[in-house]
Backbone:
């Protein structure tokens, strides 16, 4: 049987599943990468770590859910906050909590 390289629709209610090699070609390391893709070994590690969903065929081959690849790409494109931005965020959050507690305390007294 000839390999077509197409995505396969298999078990799971019509969800699309990929071979690890197909999944590797769809994962972008970063937006500025000159070419897309990671190694097959990286896909297998991501699958084993639970960062990619899928299943094993009766022969032991992994099939990766296409939606989990898309989700991984989406998450990795989110802007990463610097330590200073995180500190500023948590300081503002702590200030909001303090103000809320003050308001709640004032409402209980009245």
Residues:
């Amino acid at each position: 049987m000839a390999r077509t390289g197409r995505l396969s629709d298999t078990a799971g209610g019509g969800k699309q599943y990929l071979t690890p090699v197909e999944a590797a070609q769809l994962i972008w390391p970063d937006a500025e990468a000159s070419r897309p893709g990671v190694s097959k070994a990286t896909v297998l590690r991501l699958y084993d770590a639970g960062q990619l969903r899928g299943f094993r065929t009766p022969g032991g081959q992994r099939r990766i859910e296409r939606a989990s690849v898309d989700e991984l790409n989406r998450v990795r494109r989110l802007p990463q906050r610097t330590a200073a931005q995180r500190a500023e965020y948590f300081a503002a959050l702590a200030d909001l909590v303090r103000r809320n507690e003050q308001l709640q305390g004032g409402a209980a007294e009245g």
